[in-house]
């Protein structure tokens, strides 16, 4: 042993020092590399272990081989193997760095521990608030910011004010604007929740915060989600957070304007994107299934949105993804643009000389306006966001905006893996990790590697990257009357048959239902053979109906309407000077009704109509005779029914 050490001591001191340094550095970098590889659970497991084995074997080989060659002074061999070892260490460092970029990004996306919630008590700036002021509050006791934290504000500030309960946030805000109450409790994201509603565009300037209370809460939202991975069909609910800052806090408020359900089948590589119009009037599950615009569910938290959409589409939602659309700018820039066929404006088309123009990501107009010419082109980040946001220049309004959002999402999805440099990859990961949050675990996300690899192989073989189908739900105008505030909200009803088409196709994509087999095919030149949008087209069955205006109509029309809707009808005759008398309506017609026009028929069980008494006694007598005839007919029916009961043969 002493002889060996003496020989080693006589070898080249510089190479001997390099040998020692490489051994230490190799152990350290190789250890980091092993840890990084082991973090990639579910990704090429066999390959990862083979790499660990090969690089481990090289360490043993280099240690012995270089040592022996130092002893026998074969320095050229030592130099060559040392250079190879240095190359391997560079691979370890570079690979570990980019694996760490992935892991850190995924950790940011999935880091949903305790959330910080804040509740505000706000008032209109031009109104006073004192001990006699009335305060509005949502009466849902499960609402963290709208109800639970408000008790802390009341207790902390010793508020003795009268509290008025509301079922709906918008109803409460409109009541504040009408001056019927002086202050309201709202979530911290109240501006983004309400500024897109009629008359509330300037709510941030109109209101001011009186009191606030913040609390860190262990949210139940964090444990939402299934145990499924990408080996089986999955559903994702994409929720938009429209803010003017880059980055996304896990508990960031969102306005619910963008709700998109994405279903993926890894076996068939079928994907269906279904967007839900923001004003669709549906039961809000966490608010006693009371009807409201679906985007209002965001005011009750992520779990409420998930439950409401799940109930509406009759599908289990496995995971959610929140995305800050301000971050779309950074993501598209990292992708070096996305290719989109920009639709030409169809409403006020000449306002910007045929271009589509929208405010920028900071919501600035004037010189900051983002304008795009129609047609196929590569959009940068600001342009992609502007196109996805705009609805005022299109006749379809929110429905057209939904289509544009689907175009942008599809373009991003198809380009996500087409990065050319590792720097591009890092920029993509930074954009994603800063602006997306999800309740998927890192392991679940990594399980999607196999599906992504299959898509890439398809693309390399000239096949479709992924078969992305689009769905939409046809809607119609539904101006619903809100009795608490006495105002109307511009909601959208939906066509049941359109929704059924979407539901059926969701089941097909998720493998729960077989697609109908087409057994025959014909071709004509004048037919459109483009890929259809599921749920789109002329429909007939409406989801909801409103109380119509019966004033000026005949009594028989009211009878027919009530009979067809199972509503009990009451008739009252009124004279001039009495309540509900309408001098502008002819005698014998309906002068007034006790159910407000626009009230949801779901909430109507009876209707009273008020009929001006006729000046012509003959008309009055005729109406009395009609009533008498109705009574005689009913008595005859009752008599026959009694006789039938005694007929034993």
Descriptive report:
There is one protein chain. By secondary structure, this protein is an alpha/beta fold. Among the domains are: 2-110; 115-218, 3-Layer(aba) Sandwich (D-Maltodextrin-Binding Protein, domain 2), CATH 3.40.190; 335-423, 3-Layer(aba) Sandwich (Aminopeptidase), CATH 3.40.630; 555-646, no CATH class. The strands form 7 sheets. A 6-stranded mixed beta sheet has the order 16-11-6-7-8-17, with helices on both faces. Strands 3-2-4-1-5 form a 5-stranded mixed beta sheet, with helices on both faces. A hairpin with a 4-residue loop joins β7 and β8 (270-275). The relative contact order is 0.08. Residues 525-529, 616-624 and 633-649 have low confidence and may be disordered.
Overall structural class, as computed from helix and strand content, comes to: alpha/beta
Return residue spans where pLDDT drops below 50 for at least 5 consecutive residues: 525-529, 616-624, 633-649
Overall mean pLDDT score? 83
Count of individual helical segments: 19
Strand arrangement within the widest β-sheet reads 16-11-6-7-8-17
Gross morphology: elongated
In short:
This protein is 40% helix and 19% strand.
Descriptive tags:
649 residues, alpha/beta, D-Maltodextrin-Binding Protein, domain 2, Aminopeptidase, six-stranded mixed sheet, five-stranded mixed sheet, 19 helices, 40% helix, elongated, disordered C terminus
């Amino acid at each position: 042993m002493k002889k060996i050490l003496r020989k080693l001591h006589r070898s080249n001191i510089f190479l001997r020092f390099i040998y020692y340094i490489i051994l230490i550095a190799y152990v350290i970098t190789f250890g980091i590399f092993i840890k990084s590889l082991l973090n990639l659970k579910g990704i090429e497991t066999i390959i990862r272990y083979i790499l660990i084995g090969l690089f481990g074997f090289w360490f043993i080989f280099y240690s012995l081989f270089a040592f022996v060659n130092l002893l026998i002074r074969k320095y050229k061999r030592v130099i060559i193997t040392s250079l190879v070892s240095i190359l391997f260490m560079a691979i370890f460092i570079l690979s570990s760095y980019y694996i760490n970029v992935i892991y850190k990004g995924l950790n940011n996306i999935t880091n949903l521990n305790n959330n910080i919630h804040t509740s505000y008590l706000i008032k209109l700036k031009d109104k006073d608030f004192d001990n006699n002021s009335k305060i509005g509050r949502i009466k849902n006791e499960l609402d963290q910011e709208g109800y639970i934290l408000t008790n802390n504000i009341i207790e902390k500030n010793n508020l003795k004010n009268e509290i008025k309960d509301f079922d709906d946030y918008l109803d409460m805000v409109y009541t504040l604007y009408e001056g019927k109450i002086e202050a309201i409790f709202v979530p911290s994201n109240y501006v983004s929740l309400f500024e897109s509603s009629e008359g509330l565009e300037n709510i941030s300037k109109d209101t001011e915060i009186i009191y606030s209370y913040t609390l860190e809460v262990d949210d139940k939202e964090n444990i939402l989600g299934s145990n499924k991975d990408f080996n089986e069909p999955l559903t994702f609910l994409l929720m938009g957070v429209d803010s003017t800052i880059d980055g996304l806090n896990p508990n960031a408020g969102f306005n619910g304007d963008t709700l998109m359900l994405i279903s993926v089948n890894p076996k068939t590589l079928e994907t269906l994107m279904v967007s839900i119009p923001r004003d669709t009037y549906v039961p809000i599950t966490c608010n006693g299934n009371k009807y409201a615009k679906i985007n209002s569910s965001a005011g009750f938290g992520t779990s409420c949105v998930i439950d409401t959409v799940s109930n509406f589409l009759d599908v289990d939602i496995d995971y959610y993804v929140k995305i800050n659309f301000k971050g779309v700018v950074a993501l598209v820039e990292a992708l070096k643009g996305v290719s989109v066929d920009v639709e030409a404006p169809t409403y006020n088309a000449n306002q910007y000389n045929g271009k589509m123009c929208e405010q920028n990501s900071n919501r600035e107009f004037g010189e900051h306006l983002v304008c795009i010419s129609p047609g196929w082109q590569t959009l940068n980040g600001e342009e992609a966001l502007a196109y996805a946001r705009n609805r005022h220049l299109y006749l379809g309004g929110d429905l057209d905006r939904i289509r544009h959002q689907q175009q942008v999402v599809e373009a991003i999805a198809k380009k996500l893996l087409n990065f050319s440099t590792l720097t591009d990859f890092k920029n993509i990961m930074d954009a994603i990790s800063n602006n997306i949050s999800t309740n998927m675990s890192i392991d679940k996300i990594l399980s999607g590697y196999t599906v992504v690899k299959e898509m890439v192989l398809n693309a390399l073989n000239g096949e479709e990257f992924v078969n992305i189908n689009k769905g939409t739900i046809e809607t119609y105008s539904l101006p619903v009357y809100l009795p608490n505030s006495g105002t109307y909200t511009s909601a959208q009803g939906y066509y049941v048959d359109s929704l059924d088409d979407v539901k059926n196709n969701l089941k097909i994509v998720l493998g729960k239902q077989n697609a109908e087999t087409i057994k025959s095919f014909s071709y004509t030149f004048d037919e459109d053979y483009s890929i259809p949008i599921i749920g789109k087209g002329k429909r007939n069955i409406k989801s909801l109906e409103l109380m119509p205006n019966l004033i000026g109509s005949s009594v028989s029309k009211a009878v027919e309407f009530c009979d067809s809707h199972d509503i009990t009808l009451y008739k009252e005759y009124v004279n001039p000077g009495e309540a509900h008398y309408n001098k502008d309506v002819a005698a014998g017609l309906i002068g007034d009704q006790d159910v407000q026009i626009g009230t949801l028929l779901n909430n109507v069980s009876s209707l009273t109509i008020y009929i001006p008494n006729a000046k012509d006694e003959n008309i009055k007598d005729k109406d009395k005779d009609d009533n008498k005839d109705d009574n005689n007919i009913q008595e005859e029916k009752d008599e026959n029914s009694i006789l039938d009961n005694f007929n034993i043969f």
